[in-house]
Every structure is written in C-alpha cells, then in structure tokens.
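=== RUN LOG ===
request id: a7f3
mode: sequence -> structure
chains: 1
length: 149
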Amino acid sequence: MNLKKNLSILLTAGLLLASLPALAQKKADMRAKQGEDVWLIINYVKDEAKADYEAFMADTFFALLQKSKNEKTRQQYQQTRYLKPARQNEDGTWTYIFLMDPVVEDGNYDIPELFMEVHSEEEAQKLMEQYESFMARPAEFHGLLQSEH
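=== RESULT ===
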C-alpha cells in the first residue's frame, strides 16, 4: 500500500512538472501575428543618468509589472521586450527600446496609471517625474502592424 501511494504521488508530481512549460508562457512565445499592432518606443537617456535609469527600471518599473495583481498588466509585461544599448550614441545619450509585440488589446500602457497600481497618485507622480528626469529628450513612438514576414 505504501508503494502504491508513493507511486501515485510520483506520477502526479511528474504530470504537474511536465505541464509547467505549457502553463508558463515565455516572452519568446509571445509575438504578433500578421495584422496585429506592435508598438516601438525609443527612449534617449542622459549619459549621467544611465546607471540610475537602469536601477529604476529594474527595481521599480519592471518589479511592479512582474508582481502586478492585474492580469492585463502582467500580460503587457510578457508581451513587451526591453532592449538596452550596445553602445553610446554620438550625442552622448543612450538608446533604450520598448517593443510591445503584440500590443495587449485594451491594455493600459499609461506609466503613471501603472505606478498607481501600487502607489498613491502623489507617489506615482513623483515616480513619473523621476522617470522623466532620466530622459535627454521626448520619447519617439511608432505604431506598426505585423507583416506576413
């Protein structure tokens, strides 16, 4: 009887472990299909703000997205790629790119509102001001459609 119980537990655990990859979609699996919206946002970060910007993004922004209780926010995180610069721009800035691929239908990409998921309106405004202080110039936004290729 003990052997039967242990075998049953092992079989159940094996089935659960085998199904985990299917349950946990990876970012690499989340790509737009033909005709779906894709957004490209280009940020130019000041040279002197690079380290603080990267720390802010990791410790504040992405931490919020990953731990969000809002399913759409977590989906937005899964469907967004964040690209870091390989080298500094000629003007001394650093280029960071957000690629929403695909855009989450009815998703809320408004950064202050994302901050307000866990912070007061006043704290969210301060975080937004801090985020903007890293920028050398306004972000560039490009709305695109996935082609057949």
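=== NOTES ===
The two ends are 58 Å apart (CA to CA).
The chain has a mean pLDDT of 87.
=== END ===
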